[in-house]
Amino acid sequence: MKAPSPPCADPANKKLLATLQGKAHWPPPLWLMRQAGRYLPEFKAIRAKADFMTRCLTPDMAVELTLQPIKRYGMDGAILFSDILILPWALGQDLHFEEGRGPVLPPLRHEEDFRALDPARVAERTAPVREAITRLARELATTTTTLLGFAGAPFTVSCYMIEGGGSRDFAAVRRMMIKRPDLYAQLIEMLINATADMLSEQINAGAQAVMLFDSWAGILPPNDFRRWVIEPTRRIRALLKQRHPTVPVIGFPRLGGVMTGEYAQNTGVDTVSLDTSTDPLKILPLLSPHQGVQGNLDPQLLLNGGAPMVKAAQALAETLRGRSHVFNLGHGVSQFTPVEHVAELVEAVRSLSA
Ligand code: 1CP
């Protein structure tokens, strides 16, 4: 097992934070989406003891789970152990996670369902999350690891709220957008403000950068993508910049395809996280010089490990060398990934030479 990051009192040694603020580092800083998860034996040990919501809402557990991949691999970023669906739960929508099925919520269908949501209770219900962040910030203060907060972006969160869980085509969300744009717009408006407030609270508690996951952005046609993905993200970023001008915002418009450049330009996110299908060379010319790129190694290469993964990782880092690049995957770590493959990837990126 690798030692955790060496102590360092100087926040300038937080390579990930500096990169998110626009600097180029070589080798690039690295963390992985879903780095705390079922591929880790120490994660499974805690998973056997408590259900998902308990793990998210018990600060001791959330802290321990967040730090597991840091202790094992010395990642440059620690992402809070939580979920994008904590916000709907905090707004008053019931939520539980079913084995083999994922999140389950009572779907929002009628005006009364929307009216029952109450942003006034979010701060109180997310108090354990802030407590976990406060403790993590203290633990990581003297290390090289940057603490990341996050939320789902309004569109993706609305998908789960309206469908009542995951979906193949998100037809109920599309129906609502088409048939009740007034009601849908009210929900997105509420989510914009609640998300900005929640992320602002995460920053006040000690998160050094925040990420907005828009995992289903890619299902929308261009005009809906502009209205329900780009515009809400632009507004959340603007609200956060008013309150925390120096805190970087990462945006992940997954499967955004040719819309990804427009997303980066018009939301103003400091770093755009690219999914597996995106060629970074196609996006770079569309970014401003200090805008960063995060990603985007194929999680399937990590799953399989060995020379194909190492070669692709080296090529990806080399392609983005000289600009702000955070090494990451194009989506989350698969639960079937052998732990040795993650160690091999971390070593491959760390040992990139001049
Ligand atoms: O313990 C378990 O078995 C539950 C698995 C799990 C985990 C580890 C879920 C259920 N959520 C999480 C944690 C989580 N989720 C984190 C923090 C940990 C880390 O990254 O290391 C983060 C950032 C998320 C974000 C998240 N949750 C997203 C956005 C990113 C993505 O994967 O696209 C989404 C869409 C969710 C919803 C969700 N939560 C869990 C599941 C199985 C799902 C997907 C449901 C579906 O649509 O199929």
TrEMBL record:
<feature type="domain" description="Uroporphyrinogen decarboxylase (URO-D)">
    <location>
        <begin position="148"/>
        <end position="164"/>
    </location>
</feature>
<dbReference type="InterPro" id="IPR038071">
    <property type="entry name" value="UROD/MetE-like_sf"/>
</dbReference>
<feature type="binding site">
    <location>
        <position position="331"/>
    </location>
    <ligand>
        <name>substrate</name>
    </ligand>
</feature>
<dbReference type="InterPro" id="IPR000257">
    <property type="entry name" value="Uroporphyrinogen_deCOase"/>
</dbReference>
<dbReference type="Pfam" id="PF01208">
    <property type="entry name" value="URO-D"/>
</dbReference>
<feature type="binding site">
    <location>
        <begin position="34"/>
        <end position="38"/>
    </location>
    <ligand>
        <name>substrate</name>
    </ligand>
</feature>
<comment type="subunit">
    <text>Homodimer.</text>
</comment>
<keyword id="KW-0210">Decarboxylase</keyword>
<keyword id="KW-0963">Cytoplasm</keyword>
<feature type="binding site">
    <location>
        <position position="160"/>
    </location>
    <ligand>
        <name>substrate</name>
    </ligand>
</feature>
<feature type="binding site">
    <location>
        <position position="215"/>
    </location>
    <ligand>
        <name>substrate</name>
    </ligand>
</feature>
<dbReference type="GO" id="GO:0005829">
    <property type="term" value="C:cytosol"/>
</dbReference>
<feature type="domain" description="Uroporphyrinogen decarboxylase (URO-D)">
    <location>
        <begin position="29"/>
        <end position="38"/>
    </location>
</feature>
<keyword id="KW-0627">Porphyrin biosynthesis</keyword>
<comment type="pathway">
    <text>Porphyrin-containing compound metabolism; protoporphyrin-IX biosynthesis; coproporphyrinogen-III from 5-aminolevulinate: step 4/4.</text>
</comment>
<comment type="function">
    <text>Catalyzes the decarboxylation of four acetate groups of uroporphyrinogen-III to yield coproporphyrinogen-III.</text>
</comment>
<comment type="similarity">
    <text>Belongs to the uroporphyrinogen decarboxylase family.</text>
</comment>
<dbReference type="InterPro" id="IPR006361">
    <property type="entry name" value="Uroporphyrinogen_deCO2ase_HemE"/>
</dbReference>
<protein>
    <recommendedName>
        <fullName>Uroporphyrinogen decarboxylase</fullName>
        <ecNumber>4.1.1.37</ecNumber>
    </recommendedName>
</protein>
<feature type="binding site">
    <location>
        <position position="83"/>
    </location>
    <ligand>
        <name>substrate</name>
    </ligand>
</feature>
<dbReference type="GO" id="GO:0004853">
    <property type="term" value="F:uroporphyrinogen decarboxylase activity"/>
</dbReference>
<feature type="site" description="Transition state stabilizer">
    <location>
        <position position="83"/>
    </location>
</feature>
<dbReference type="GO" id="GO:0019353">
    <property type="term" value="P:protoporphyrinogen IX biosynthetic process from glutamate"/>
</dbReference>
<keyword id="KW-0456">Lyase</keyword>
